[in-house]
């Protein structure tokens, strides 16, 4: 019980770093100590769930690859804010095909 | 605040540990995946901050409060985090209260508190930690002064001996 309490009230992530990131947001003026702690905890939960969900969706249960993450970020609505951070990788050939397709469409219109 | 761009990343070692604890043993996490999760976590902090700040501003407050963060999680549709976060907040408040009581006690006992530094238990509140360190520093300084005085008195006695010898 004591151990559980301990893990609940301590944050593994360095709160000073979390604070630096939060303060880099332009409109933020003050952050209460409790809010900072909760933000750190929430990030911890977020990392855990992102890793777990990605592994669940992964075809290979023995390893977690970038493409698994990209797939999850692309398919889950709540993770849409990460789409620019974890984009799906495409080959150069696919890219050029996309580019060509776009150009064709432009010409048609 | 952030002088270098790296200051906006979370430490990789900690991220790796959290990932390892979250998934079964023996699962290999590629370096690229780890980096992506780390970046995602940083962006998550910013996203949560901006949402929480919106709620604080709506309430005409300048300081982001704990409740703002919890409401922001609902707004971001991370409802599954709300319950655990509430539990954490409760435990955190209890811990802080415990520390305050401890501090009061240790102030009353003054010197005897330094004999039991482990009594405090948790190590969540940075404020309290800093105070503890200051106390320790003070104690060390006092000890140093004591040593200094002793050294001086030894030196005095040395001088005495020398002067005795020279008089003979």
Automatic annotation (TrEMBL), chain A:
Biological role stated in the UniProt entry: Forms a complex with DNA polymerase epsilon subunit POLE3 and binds naked DNA, which is then incorporated into chromatin, aided by the nucleosome remodeling activity of ISWI/SNF2H and ACF1. Does not enhance nucleosome sliding activity of the ACF-5 ISWI chromatin remodeling complex.
Stored Gene3D superfamilies: Histone, subunit A
GO process terms (BP): chromatin remodeling; DNA-templated DNA replication
Subunit record text: Heterodimer with POLE3; binds to DNA. Component of the CHRAC ISWI chromatin remodeling complex at least composed of SMARCA5/SNF2H, BAZ1A/ACF1, CHRAC1 and POLE3; the complex preferentially binds DNA through the CHRAC1-POLE3 heterodimer and possesses ATP-dependent nucleosome-remodeling activity. Within the complex, the heterodimer with POLE3 interacts with SMARCA5/SNF2H; the interaction is direct and enhances nucleosome sliding activity by the SMARCA5/SNF2H and BAZ1A/ACF1 interaction. Within the complex, the heterodimer with POLE3 interacts with BAZ1A/ACF1; the interactions are direct.
Cleavable signal peptide: none
Keywords from the UniProt entry: Acetylation, Coiled coil, DNA-binding, Nucleotidyltransferase, Nucleus, Phosphoprotein, Transferase
Keyword Ligase: no
Protein name in UniProt: Chromatin accessibility complex protein 1
Keyword Transmembrane helix recorded: no
Cellular localization per UniProt: Nucleus
Domain called Transcription factor CBF/NF-Y/archaeal histone: residue spans: 12-72
Entry GO terms, CC: CHRAC
Highest taxon in the source lineage: Eukaryota
Principal cellular location given in the protein's record: nucleus
Record-linked PANTHER family: CHROMATIN ACCESSIBILITY COMPLEX PROTEIN 1, HISTONE-LIKE TRANSCRIPTION FACTOR CCAAT-RELATED
InterPro entries on file: CBFA_NFYB_domain, Histone-fold, Transcr_DNA_Rep_Reg
Record GO terms (molecular function): DNA binding; nucleotidyltransferase activity; protein heterodimerization activity
Automatic annotation (TrEMBL), chain B:
Functional note: Accessory component of the DNA polymerase epsilon complex. Participates in DNA repair and in chromosomal DNA replication. Forms a complex with CHRAC1 and binds naked DNA, which is then incorporated into chromatin, aided by the nucleosome-remodeling activity of ISWI/SNF2H and ACF1. Does not enhance nucleosome sliding activity of the ACF-5 ISWI chromatin remodeling complex.
Annotated keywords: Acetylation, Coiled coil, DNA-binding, Nucleus, Phosphoprotein
Any one GO molecular function term: chromatin DNA binding
Domain of life the protein comes from: Eukaryota
GO cellular component: a single term: CHRAC
Record GO biological process: DNA damage response; heterochromatin formation; leading strand elongation
Cellular location(s): Nucleus
Matches recorded under CDD domains: HFD_POLE3_DPB4 (cd22928)
Listed name of the protein: DNA polymerase epsilon subunit 3
UniProt subunit comment: Component of the DNA polymerase epsilon complex consisting of four subunits: the catalytic subunit POLE and the accessory subunits POLE2, POLE3 and POLE4. Interaction with POLE4 is a prerequisite for further binding with POLE and POLE2. Heterodimer with CHRAC1; binds to DNA. Component of the CHRAC ISWI chromatin remodeling complex at least composed of SMARCA5/SNF2H, BAZ1A/ACF1, CHRAC1 and POLE3; the complex preferentially binds DNA through the CHRAC1-POLE3 heterodimer and possesses ATP-dependent nucleosome-remodeling activity.
Annotated Basic and acidic residues bias: 107-119
Domain Transcription factor CBF/NF-Y/archaeal histone: 9-73
């Amino acid at each position: 019980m004591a151990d559980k309490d301990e893990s609940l009230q301590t944050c593994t992530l360095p709160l000073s770093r979390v604070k630096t990131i939060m303060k880099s947001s332009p409109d933020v003026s003050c952050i209460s100590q409790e809010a900072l702690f909760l933000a750190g905890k929430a990030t911890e939960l977020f990392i855990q769930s992102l890793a777990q969900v990605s592994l669940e969706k992964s075809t290979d249960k023995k390893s977690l690859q970038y493409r698994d993450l990209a797939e999850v970020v692309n398919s889950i609505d709540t993770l849409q804010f990460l789409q620019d951070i974890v984009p799906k990788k495409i080959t150069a050939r696919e890219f050029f095909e996309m580019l060509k397709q776009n150009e064709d469409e432009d010409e048609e219109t | 605040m952030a002088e270098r761009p790296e200051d906006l990343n979370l430490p990789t070692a900690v991220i790796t540990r959290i990932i390892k604890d979250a998934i079964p043993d023996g699962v290999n996490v590629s370096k690229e995946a780890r980096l992506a999760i780390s970046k995602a976590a940083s962006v998550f902090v910013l996203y949560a901050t901006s949402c929480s700040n919106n709620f604080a501003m709506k309430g005409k407050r300048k300081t982001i409060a704990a409740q703002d963060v919890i409401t922001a999680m609902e707004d971001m549709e991370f409802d599954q985090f709300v319950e655990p976060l509430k539990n954490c907040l409760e435990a955190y408040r209890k811990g802080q209260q415990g520390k305050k009581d401890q501090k009061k006690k240790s102030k009353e006992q003054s010197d005897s508190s330094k004999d039991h530094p482990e009594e405090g238990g948790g190590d969540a509140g940075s404020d309290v930690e800093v105070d503890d360190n200051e106390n320790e520093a003070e104690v060390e300084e006092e000890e140093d002064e004591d040593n200094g005085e002793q050294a001086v008195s030894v030196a005095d006695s040395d001088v005495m001996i020398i002067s005795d010898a020279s008089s003979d």
